[in-house]
Amino acid sequence: MSVQIERMCNANFTEMTVSSKEMVLIEDRRALAIMESTVQMVDGHYQLSLPWKYENLSLPNNRAKAVKRLDLLKRHLEKDVDLKRKYKETVEECISLGHAQKIPDGRVGSPVWYLLHHPVVHPQKPDKVRVVFDCAARFQNTSLSDQLLQLPELTNSLVGVLLRLRQERIGISADIEKMFHQVRVSPGDTHALSFLWWPGGDFSKKPEIMRCLFTCLELDRFLVAQAFL
User: Structural domain of residue 106, as residue ranges?
Assistant: First the structure.
């Protein structure tokens, strides 16, 4: 009877026996090929290239929009002293941990794209502020997300995870601290993850050009999943 039940579950929930890569759509294969050919371990971190749609990439210079949004962010934060302090601490921690860095002499490479960023506070975690980089923000009818290949779903389904918990007597879960900051982007692609920030979080100073060295926002789930699979 137990053998029959196992066969029935495997037939109804194919995730148990079929590799996720075999289920990937044809149009996603190019993105996977880019990831698989560029993934490598560098200084204890996985590193991947971004899955660009076009070889000869041409992005418009959206710095003017980034400057405008930074000014709006400054006004917003100055109205809330507590939020301002937490946001500054979060960004400065990101820089101090090496997840982002100042571009030497402000010399941005190509392709360059300035990410707009803003704070988000979870209702259940009011003391923690997350910095969200908006990859979908548009400028001249395009966005960073528009320039990247469609990303296939590689994460396990919740149903599959729950079913596998029944395979053994003990189930174990773990949490990787700052997981999305553990997967790096290839150096040649980091200029497309540029953003503006004030030196030391001092709003009275002229903003500097920074760049993310890690995956962010909409890139998170796909890049991290591909790196660890």
Answer: 2-228
The pLDDT assigned to 22 comes to: 47
In this prediction the pTM is: 0.77
pLDDT along the chain (229 residues), means of 10: 54 48 64 86 88 86 96 96 95 92 79 93 86 92 89 76 85 75 86 94 95 68 46
The whole-angstrom separation of Cα 56 and Cα 90 is 35
Sheet holding 184-185, edge to edge: 40-42, 45-48, 184-185
d(Cα 112, Cα 66) in Å, to the nearest integer? 12
Give CA 161 to chain center in angstroms: 23
- Overall number of domains in the chain: 1
d(CA 65, CA 100): 21
Q: What is the distance between the alpha carbons of residues 14 and 180, in angstroms, rounded to a whole number?
A: 28
Q: Which two tokens stand for residue 132?
A: 């969200």
- Those residues whose C-beta lies under 8 Å from the C-beta of residue 133, and which sit 6 or more positions away, are 115, 116, 117, 193, 195, 212, 216, 217
What is d(CA 49, CA 139) in angstroms, rounded to the nearest whole number? 23
Q: Which residues pair with 122 in a beta bridge?
A: 125
In 3D space, the residue among 98, 70, 132, 44 whose CA is nearest the CA of residue 211 turns out to be 98
DSSP reduced 3-state for 131 = strand
CA 172 remoteness from chain centre: 26
Q: How far from chain centre, in Å, is Cα 11?
A: 34
**Nearby residues of 117 by Cβ (< 8 Å), 6 or more positions away:** 73, 131, 132, 133, 134, 195
The CA-based angle 168-174-177, given to 5 degrees, is 170
